[in-house]
Every structure is written in structure tokens, then in C-alpha cells.
Amino acid sequence: MLSSLVKEHQAKQAAKRVIQEQKRKECIVAANDLTQALVDHLNVGVAQAYLNQKKLDAEAKLLHQGAINFAKLTQQWLTLVENFSSALKEIGDVENWARSIENDMKIITDTLERAYETTREQPSNTGSSNN
Question: Which pLDDT tens digit goes with each residue over 20-75?
Fold first, then answer.
């Protein structure tokens, strides 16, 4: 009877070990599934962050290129404005030069007219004194 009790106890122990081993394997599978689900969930966020970062990098490159192009255009505009300003300055210088020449010509004309009038009056005075 004692041996039958021991055998029965050993059989129950073996059955419990089998059940425990099954439960341990199920637990390991469940833990692996949970871990995989958590990793997948985190990977979705990481993947989204990576995609967003790629988009930001592309936009930053476009913005940088746009800024470079804008700087080049701005430099061209500044050069054009400086050239225009210089041309206006030259036109102003030419205008002043022309006025100066005009004033000089008026002075010369007035002087020649006076000289002509003076010489015209003198011969008539000298001609009447000779007669």
C-alpha cells in the first residue's frame, strides 16, 4: 500500500510537472508575444519619427537652397541698384557740366556782344572826329 501511495504521488507530481512545464512554455510564449507587441508599438513611433526627420531634412535642404538663391538674387539686385545709382549720378554730373558750359557760353556771348557794340560805337566816334 505504501508503494502504491508513493507511485500515485509520483504520478501526480509528474502530471503537475507536465502541467507546470506547459504553463511555463505558455508563459514564455506570452512574454515573447508581449515583448514583440511592445517593440512593434515602439517601432511604429520610431519609424514615424524617422520619416518626419527625413521630411524635415528635405525641407531644410530646400529652405537652405532657397536662401542661397535669394541671397544671389539680392546681390544681383544690389548690383543693379548700385549701377543705376551710379548712372543717375553720372547723368547729374553731365547735367551740371552742361549747365556750366551753358553759363560759360552765355558769359562769352554777352562779352562778345558788348565787345561788338563797343567796337561799333568807337569807329563811328573816331570816324566823325576825322571828318
Answer: 999 999 999 999 999 999 888 888 888 899 999 999 999 999 999 999 999 999 99
pLDDT digits (tens, 9 = 90+) for 78-94: 999 999 999 888 888 88
Backbone angles phi, psi at 74, to 5 degrees: -60, -40
- Positive or negative, the CA dihedral 98, 101, 103, 105 is negative
Q: Is the C-alpha dihedral spanning 13, 15, 21, 26 positive or negative? A: negative
- Write down the residue that cell numbers 569807329 correspond to: 123
Give the CA count within 13 Å in the CB-facing half-sphere of 39: 6
Enclosing H/E stretch for 118: helix 2-130
Q: What is the C-alpha to C-alpha distance for residues 67 and 107, in angstroms, rounded to an integer?
A: 59
Of residues 28, 52, 25, the one with CA closest to residue 36 = 28
The DSSP line for 1-41 is -HHHHHHHHHHHHHHHHHHHHHHHHHHHHHHHHHHHHHHHH
Query: Model-level pTM?
Result: 0.46
Cell of 97: 557740366
